[in-house]
C-alpha cells in the first residue's frame, strides 16, 4: 500500500523553511533552552512561535490547511528543532503521528473535523499506545473500549503519554472485540476531562519542559465515529505511523549530535593545554574524526529512510536502521563532547550536559534499539522471502 501521498517538496522551498527555522532556533530558543529545561518549564512562547511558523501542519496536506510538505522537509525541520532543544521536536512528534494516522486512515469527515485545527496547532495531538506492561510488548495492552450503542466506553490506564495533558486529541490504542483498534479521542487540554484523568506526571532524566504522563480512563464515553479505519486493525495503522515517529527520532538524534559536535569542535579550538589548543592533540583529533563520521552517517541514513517512506515504500527496515544508528551515535557523540569539555562539560553552565541527558531517550523511545534490531531483521527476512513484513 502506498501511504505517503504528498509530492516531493521543491528543494528551494525546503531550504527556505529550514533556514527560517534555523534562524528562529538561534535567536529564540538557544539563549533560553537550558534555563527552561532545568526549570522543567513548558515553553509556551516558543510553541506559539512554532504555531505561527506552521510547524504543526508541515506534513498535513494543503487541502486541510497544512503546509503539505514532504517527509524530508519534516526531517530537516526536526533536526533544527532538536539542535536547539530536543524537547521541541517532542512537541511536534506525536502530534504529527496522530495527524499522519488521520490523513492515511481517516474518513473525509474525520479529516475535515480534525486536520484544519491540527494544522494551525490550535488542536494538538498525542499518541497513546504504551501501557505499564505493554511498551515493547504492545500486543499485551489491556485498555478496553466496549461498544455500547453508538458509543465506546473506555476503561484502563495508559503510560508514557508525551503531550498527553496539553493535547486536544489522543490517538488511543484500545482493545475491542475485534482486536486492537485506534480511537481518536477528543478532550479539553488539562488534567481532567470527562472520565479521563492525568493520574501522574512522570519525572525524567532529560526531555524536560514537555510533559510525559500516565492517563487513566474510567468509563470514559467516546462517540462510535471516533473509530479510525477498521476495528481490529489499529495496531497495524499505528505501527505504520511509527515509521514516521522513528524517522523523527533519528532526525532528533542527528540534531542533538550536531549540537554536541559543534560545541566540542569550538571548545577544542579555544581550550589550551600544554601550550596549544587541545584540538592539536592527536587524541582529541581522533575523537573529532569519529564524531563527524558518525554524524554524517546518521544523517544519510535518516534522509534515506525519509525519502523511501515519502516515496510510498514500506520503510520499516530503513526507519529502524536510521533510528538505531542515529540514536546510538548521538549518545556516543554527546558523551565524547562532554569528555572534550573536561570538567566544565559536567556542569550546568554549558548545554553539553543537556545533550548527554537527552540523548538516551532516542535509544528507548518509539521502540527500544533492541526492538529495532528485531524489526530490521524481520523486515530483511520477509523481503528475502518475498513476503510483506508483519
Ligand atoms: C520519555 C518517554 C516518552 C515516551 N512517550 C511515549 C508516547 O508519547 N506514547 C507512547 O505510546 N509511548 C511512549 N513512550 C513509551 C516507549 O515507547 C516505551 O518506553 C518503550 O517502547 C519501551 O517499553 P518499556 O518501557 O515497557 O520497556 P520494556 O518493554 O519493559 O523493555 C525493557 C528492556 O527489555 C528489552 N526487551 C523487551 N522485549 C524484548 C525482546 N523481545 N527482545 C529483546 N529485548 C527486549 C528492551 O529493549 C529494554 O531494554 C515513552 C517513553 C519514554 C521513556
Description of the molecule:
The protein is α+β, with helices and mostly antiparallel strands and 390 residues long. It folds into 3 domains: 11-123, Butyryl-Coa Dehydrogenase, subunit A, domain 1 (Orthogonal Bundle); 126-231, Beta Barrel (Butyryl-CoA Dehydrogenase, subunit A, domain 2); 235-384, Butyryl-CoA Dehydrogenase, subunit A, domain 3. The chain contains 11 helices and 10 strands. The chain has helices spanning 11-29, 33-39, 44-52, 71-84, 86-105, 108-120, 234-270, 282-310, 316-340, 352-364, 369-384, and strands at residues 125-128, 144-148, 151-162, 169-176, 179-186, 192-193, 196-201, 212-223, 272-273, 276-277. α4 (71-84) runs antiparallel to α5 (86-105), α5 (86-105) packs antiparallel against α6 and α9 (316-340) packs antiparallel against α10 (352-364). The structure holds flavin-adenine dinucleotide (FAD). Flavin-adenine dinucleotide binds at residues 94, 127-130, 135-137, 160-162, 204, 207, 212, 361, 364-368, 370-371.
The SSE order reads HHHHHHEEEEEEEEHEEHHHH
Give the integer mean of the pLDDT values: 96
Cross-sheet strand order for the largest sheet: 2-3-8-7-6
Indicate the structural class. Answer: alpha+beta
Q: What would the principal axes of the Cα set say about the shape?
A: globular
User: In which range does the helix fraction lie?
Assistant: 40-55%
Ranges where pLDDT stays below 50 over 5 or more residues in a row are 1-5
Write a concise synopsis of the structure shown.
The protein has 390 residues and is of the alpha+beta class. It has helices at 11-29, 33-39, 44-52, 71-84, 86-105, 108-120, 234-270, 282-310, 316-340, 352-364, 369-384, and strands at 125-128, 144-148, 151-162, 169-176, 179-186, 192-193, 196-201, 212-223, 272-273, 276-277. Helix content is 52%, strand content 16%.
Amino acid at each position: 500500500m502506498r501511504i505517503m501521498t504528498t509530492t516531493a517538496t521543491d528543494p528551494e522551498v525546503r531550504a527556505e523553511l529550514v533556514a527560517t527555522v534555523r534562524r528562529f532556533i538561534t535567536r529564540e530558543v538557544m539563549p533560553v533552552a537550558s534555563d527552561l529545561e532545568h526549570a522543567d518549564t513548558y515553553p509556551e512562547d516558543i510553541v506559539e512561535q512554532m504555531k505561527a511558523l506552521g510547524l504543526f501542519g508541515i506534513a498535513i496536506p494543503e487541502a486541510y490547511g497544512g503546509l503539505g510538505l514532504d517527509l524530508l522537509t519534516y526531517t530537516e525541520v526536526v533536526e533544527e528543532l532538536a539542535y536547539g532543544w530536543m524537547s521541541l521536536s517532542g512537541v511536534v512528534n506525536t502530534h504529527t503521528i496522530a495527524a499522519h494516522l488521520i490523513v492515511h486512515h481517516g474518513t473525509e469527515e474525520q479529516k475535515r473535523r480534525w486536520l484544519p485545527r491540527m494544522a494551525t496547532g490550535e488542536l494538538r495531538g498525542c499518541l497513546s499506545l504504551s501501557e505499564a506492561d505493554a511498551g515493547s510488548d504492545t500486543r499485551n495492552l489491556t485498555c478496553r473500549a466496549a461498544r455500547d450503542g453508538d458509543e465506546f466506553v473506555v476503561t484502563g490506564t495508559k503510560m508514557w503519554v508525551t503531550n498527553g495533558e496539553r493535547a486536544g486529541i489522543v490517538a488511543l490504542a484500545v482493545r475491542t472485540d475485534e482486536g486492537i483498534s485506534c480511537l481518536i479521542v477528543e478532550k479539553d487540554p488539562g488534567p481532567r476531562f470527562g472520565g479521563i484523568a492525568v493520574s501522574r506526571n512522570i519525572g525524567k532524566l532529560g526531555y524536560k519542559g514537555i510533559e510525559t504522563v500516565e492517563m487513566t480512563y474510567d468509563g470514559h464515553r467516546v462517540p462510535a465515529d471516533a473509530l479510525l479505519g477498521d476495528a481490529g486493525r489499529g495496531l497495524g495503522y499505528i505501527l505504520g505511523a511509527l515509521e514516521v515517529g522513528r524517522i523523527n527520532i533519528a532526525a532528533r538524534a542527528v540534531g542533538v549530535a550536531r549540537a554536541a559536535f559543534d560545541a566540542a569542535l569550538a571548545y577544542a579550538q579555544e581550550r589550551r593545554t600544554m601550550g596549544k589548543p587541545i584540538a592539536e592533540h592527536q587524541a582529541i583529533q581522533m575523537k573529532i574524526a569519529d564524531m563527524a563520521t558518525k554524524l554524517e552517517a546518521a544523517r544519510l541514513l535518516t534522509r534515506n529512510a525519509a525519502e523511501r517512506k515519502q516515496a510510498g515504500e514500506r520503510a520499516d527496515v530503513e526507519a529502524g536502521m536510521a533510528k538505531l544508528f542515529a540514536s546510538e551515535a548521538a549518545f556516543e557523540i554527546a558523551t565524547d563532547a562532554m569528555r572534550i569539555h573536561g570538567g566544565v562539560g559536567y556542569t550546568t553552565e554549558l548545554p553539553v550536559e543537556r545533550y548527554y541527558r537527552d540523548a538516551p531517550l532516542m535509544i528507548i523511545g518509539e521502540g527500544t534499539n533492541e526492538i529495532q534490531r528485531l524489526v530490521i531483521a524481520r523486515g530483511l527476512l520477509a523481503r528475502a522471502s518475498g513476503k510483506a513484513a508483519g
